[in-house]
């Protein structure tokens, strides 16, 4: 399924944000979440980029981590990944399971979930706004730049139980393939949806 829907109200408050930040940065050579990105940690920069466009942001951290140690406010909503490093699918499933079980009204009323990688602060504000504006409970919205799909991906609530059932280290890739007919590809002029930070060379040059 391609092409955006134009009848959605702008700035949907029912979209929740979930940032995946429990990985181990092996290609980076250190904890990239702490890398400096324009005066703040990389993870904080990504979180601040998403925050204005969603009703709330939850960050998946490694087991036992505290948000303030990563440059985030102490009151940041956090889900702890399992103590055994058994893949992004398991961490994602644990986080979505917590959201589904939550009794907080903002979680219960959530219509969609924007999944964002913790090392992608370059996604533009207008791109995030457009993605959120297309959210539906029964759709998956994914941005693409010059025909290449990127992140974040917005999953309607219909797909949350399937996200909560993921395992292994493949994330939501199989889910996207299984539900191709419900995927809206949103074309954007924004290379930031493809630009994650894998090595120190991917960071902005010091001023």
Automatic annotation (TrEMBL):
GO terms for molecular function: nucleotidyltransferase activity. It comes from the Bacteria. CDD domains: GT_2_like_f (cd04182). Transmembrane segments: none annotated. Keywords: Magnesium, Nucleotidyltransferase, Transferase. InterPro entries: MobA-like_NTP_Trfase, Nucleotide-diphossugar_trans. Residues 17-181 form the MobA-like NTP transferase domain. PANTHER family: MOLYBDENUM COFACTOR CYTIDYLYLTRANSFERASE. This is Molybdenum cofactor cytidylyltransferase. It comes from Kushneria indalinina DSM 14324. The lineage of its organism: Bacteria, Pseudomonadati, Pseudomonadota, Gammaproteobacteria, Oceanospirillales.
């Amino acid at each position: 399924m391609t092409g955006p829907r134009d009848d959605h109200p702008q700035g949907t408050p029912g979209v929740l944000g979930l940032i995946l930040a429990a990985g181990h940065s092996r290609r980076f050579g250190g904890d990239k979440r702490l890398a400096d990105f324009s005066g703040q940690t990389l993870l904080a920069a990504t979180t601040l980029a998403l925050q204005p466009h969603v009703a709330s942001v939850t960050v998946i951290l490694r087991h036992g981590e505290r948000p303030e140690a990563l440059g985030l406010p102490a009151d940041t909503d956090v889900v702890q990944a399992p103590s055994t490093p058994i893949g992004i699918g398991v961490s994602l499933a644990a986080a979505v399971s917590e959201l589904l079980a939550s009794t907080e009204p903002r979680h219960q009323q959530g219509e969609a979930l924007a999944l964002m990688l913790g090392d992608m602060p370059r996604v533009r504000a207008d791109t995030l706004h457009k993605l959120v504006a297309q959210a539906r409970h029964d759709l998956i919205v994914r941005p693409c730049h010059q025909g290449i799909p990127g992140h974040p991906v917005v999953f309607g609530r219909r797909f949350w139980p399937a996200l909560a059932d993921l395992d292994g280290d493949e994330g939501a890739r199989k889910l996207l393939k299984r539900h191709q007919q419900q995927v809206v590809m949103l074309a954007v002029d924004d290379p930031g949806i493809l630009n994650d930070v894998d090595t120190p060379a991917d960071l902005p040059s010091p001023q």
